[in-house]
Amino acid sequence: MITVSTRDRSILSSAVIALVRRRAVPIAAVLVVAPLVVAVIALLWRPWAPVLDLAMTELRVRDVGGRFTPRIGLPGRIGDFPDQGSHPGPWSFYLVAPFYRLAGATAWGMQLGSVAINSAAFAGVVLIGRRLAGTLGAIALAAVATVAIRGFGLNVLTHPWNPYFPLALWLLLLVAAWAVVAGHHRLAVVVALCATVATQTHVPYLVSCVFVSVLVLVVLVRRWRAAEGVIRAAIARSTLWAVGVTVVLWLPPIADQLRRDPGNITMLFRHFTGEPSEPVISLGAAVRVFLRHLDVFGASVAAIAHADGFIVRSGAPYGGPASPIGGLVVLLAWVAAAAVAHRRRHRLLDALNIVLATALVAAFVSMTRIFGKIWFYLTLWAWMTTLLVVLSIIWTALLVLRDRRRVDRSMLEIAGWGVSLAATLLSLGAVATHEVPEQHLSDGLRAVMPDTVAAVEGGVGSAVGADGTYLVFWQDSVFIGAQGYGLVNELERRGLHVGVHDTWRVPVTPQRVLAPGTYDAEIHLVSGIYIDEWRSRDGYVEVAKVDVRTEAERARFDELRGEVGRRLEDLGRPEVIDVVDGNLFGASLDPALPQDVIDDLSEMLLLGEPVSVFVAPPDSTF
């Protein structure tokens, strides 16, 4: 039996500690990105057919590098359908495209691209932490990043949906801006890169990115004016590089603006400076939303109650009765911590708090401009700012404790490693339950694809085979055509020449519009109550049908439908029953409905309805 003496154990422990300290940055980076890497590998065995926005995203990623390389972003709630505008720019598509090609132009390639970009952003946060405050800075920011990954969840950080895509970039932007304010002027280029990509990908980032970018520019200009010689020239170079990167990255949207009338920039300007299509939320609602995103107490409760993605799931519904007290306490604690740090003349904390003050003011301004329903994804980025607010509070508290000799460096390192390790292990544990987006809709779409493709290639009904041209149409009772957009994408993936009516020129892209008389047949995807209507139409051949629900899920859907019908009758809203049957998602958006009815409708949306695909004669829809 081999025994190890106390002295040997002490020597071994010291050696391990020394090794960890020497390799702290790469170890921290590995801890941060490990859950994302493992998750994307696991997704290889979880087939996915993107629907709705992610189907639109893949169409554009597929176009990158060709004649129709996109110059603007994904369509948004900007203007009125079918002439709505889009988010400002295409850089999310450009960044994902190389990984998409590397993965054989599969849907998984978009997941690979998203993970690669997010991993690079989080690793960059750790590296900047090392530059700011040495090993301890890298450990601290690794803890922030691992908590962010656990809090936002693998479902959010492995898919390139445009509200999710910039989240890690926003954290990197804030940390890079912190570094610039602290004196590391070369990182202004990182600020410019992240701000541009985030703003172009999802317009709710615009105000915050502009505020922080202006702060960085003001800091650089002031330092340039005060500096001399070599330092002055170096600051000038960094500033010019940042401005140059910004200009270059904005060339695609500028090209769109010059080549189209009206250009997308004009449409965005008109939309956000004119009368909004829906009422702007009240100032009180904006305050509640702002403070809600600072409520780390509520998020902590959600972390206990939920598994992966507790930040996304935390608290009551937006606009609901969520208490502002928790967020107010955090805000006041941060203000007090910032005052303590400033009194101590702590350069790094002062720099961080200047960036945070700018970001918080920008967040509030942005939230006062929300119109219509307060969708959770519009302000999800604010939680990244809150994580740094918490870091500022904890760091200041530890300084006070250190002065009282309550903590030392080793204790801080152990605490940082402990948080990172715990968050990483919990995130890795969540890989087992990690799903693709809109799993039930994806499964339904995937299930009808084999029979649909076989029918088209076999010339069933009006189809003329694989060399024909086909118009895709949909009538969806559940989720505003989500699977219809996916059908266009999946048929195109299989090499078929497909397109849509001019009505869908913006979401499906103008080059995929087919004029009447230019296609050989139509392919229709219909769901729910529309299926029987389509079966009665002359010349329409049903080539695929599926109901992916279990018997229990079908029974539950019928039970909910009955309960919703009864509640609507009781409320004196019987006219909404037809909307529920024909446009379930639209019915769920009715602001006049009570929360219990909305909850039932939301559960029905998750359960879904049967789907069928028909081959129809050309020009039969209009």
Describe this entry's structure for a reader.
The model is unreliable at 315-321 (pLDDT under 50). This protein has helices at 6-22, 24-43, 52-63, 91-102, 107-152, 154-157, 167-181, 188-201, 206-226, 229-249, 251-259, 264-273, 283-292, 296-305, 310-313, 325-343, 347-367, 382-403, 409-430, 439-457, 482-493, 505-508, 530-535, 551-570, 576-582, 584-588, 595-607; strands at residues 469-475, 497-499, 521-527, 541-546, 611-616. The chain is globular and about 85 Å long. The chain has a five-stranded mixed beta sheet with strand order 2-1-3-5-4. 64% of the residues lie in helices and 5% in strands. α2 crosses α5 (107-152), α8 (188-201) packs antiparallel against α9 and α9 (206-226) packs antiparallel against α10. The N and C termini lie far apart (86 Å).
Q: What is the topology?
A:
Blueprint: H1 6-22, H2 24-43, H3 52-63, H4 91-102, H5 107-152, H6 154-157, H7 167-181, H8 188-201, H9 206-226, H10 229-249, H11 251-259, H12 264-273, H13 283-292, H14 296-305, H15 310-313, H16 325-343, H17 347-367, H18 382-403, H19 409-430, H20 439-457, E1 469-475, H21 482-493, E2 497-499, H22 505-508, E3 521-527, H23 530-535, E4 541-546, H24 551-570, H25 576-582, H26 584-588, H27 595-607, E5 611-616
Parallel strand pairs: 1-2, 1-3
Antiparallel strand pairs: 3-5, 4-5
Broad shape: globular
Give the radius of gyration.
Answer: 27 Å
Beta-strand proportion: under 5%
Average of per-residue pLDDT values: 90
Tell me roughly what share of residues is in helical segments: 55-70%
Task: Summarize the biggest pleated sheet.
Answer: 5 strands, mixed
How many DSSP H or I helices?
A: 27
CA distance, first residue to last residue? 86 Å
Name the strands of the widest sheet in spatial order. 2-1-3-5-4
How many β-strands, per DSSP?
5
Judged by helices, strands and strand pairing, the structural class is: mainly alpha
Low-confidence stretches: 315-321
